[in-house]
Amino acid sequence: xxxxxxxxxALIFVSATSFLSGCNFEKIKVDEDAHFNTLFTRSGGGFTGxxxxxxxxxxxxxTVWIFGDTFLGTVNADSTRRxxxxxxxxxxxxxxxxxxxxxxxxxxxxxxxxxIIPPKVKKSDGELTENQFWYWPGDGFAQxxxxxxxxxEFEQVTDDMWGFEWKSxxxxxxxxxxxxxxxxxxxxxxxxxxIHFGHAVLKDKGFLYMYGxxxxxxxxxxxxxxxxxxxxxxxxxxxxxxxxxxxxxxxxINISEQFSxxxxxxxxxxxxxxxxxxxxxxVFHADEPDSWETTKGxxxxxxxxxxxxxxxxxxxxxxxxxxxxxxxxLLVSYNMNSHKLQDLFQNAHIYKPRFLxxxxxxxx
Length: 364
Fold this sequence. Notes:
Elements: H1 2-12, E1 31-32, H2 34-39, E2 44-50, E3 54-57, E4 63-67, E5 70-74, E6 92-97, E7 100-104, E8 106-107, E9 112-113, H3 119-122, E10 133-143, E11 146-156, E12 164-175, E13 180-187, H4 189-192, E14 200-204, E15 207-214, E16 217-224, E17 233-236, E18 239-241, E19 260-264, E20 267-273, E21 280-286, E22 297-302, E23 312-320, E24 329-338, H5 341-346, E25 354-359
């Protein structure tokens, strides 16, 4: 189930607090973004709520939003969500063209499925379903006329809803502008060594930097942009090695499973929530895409949870630098969920992207 699966992932990553003493806690003015909060309050005809909330700016000026577990169908006038079959799909894209949103998935409105489905499920003639194997998407990037998106495959290994585990990493390719899936590359297990690479990506200086988590801490790999499926290098105690076994964390703290790495001017930023369901959102800055230090970080805001519901929690804050506004404020999203699945049907406003604005000059 959507709630308990995300809950288990978050509980794995227990937050470390010993680094806080060297960091900046100054007050920062953060505002809700009414435009995006309204834009993603949908009542039907496609997307009505999801988590994940990655975004990729496309060469033609559109943005594609990349979502994990996604509700489709109808939200009633009283904000209750109508139950559909299936209740949700494992991934979807929403393409934004100015204020127009178009939801991408497979199947029909009467028989809909995830946009990206593991090949073993497709080839099984119904013997396997996405209740057994599925993809949760990570970050993506545009390269010439192609959108490339990292995926994490999961398997339900026991009958109980907690009994699932990460299996592998893949890279899907979609031909632009129509988002036709043209390739799906399974990344060899030997390249990732159980690190969930692809939860953040950055194109810089001819490299694709790929960031991921293992045991709650962030790691980095990089490869030549001209040959992404070729040899990878891994950050290892301030250097780069081709041996994934030698990879070391780029920050010795526990953070959220999904996070952002981006560049503004000559400065690199890593934006994340802390682990263990923390509502604190932090940003770290660096002069290089691998030279992170815990002392170069600060808490930029603490998320206020609405609705007076103690079952709600937030996770996976992400940055969207293509939407910096005329007041020089960065757009930041986060996800909200409930420990009780029924809450998501009683109040559709719970499970949807939520957006804030943070002044860029306060990121350092």
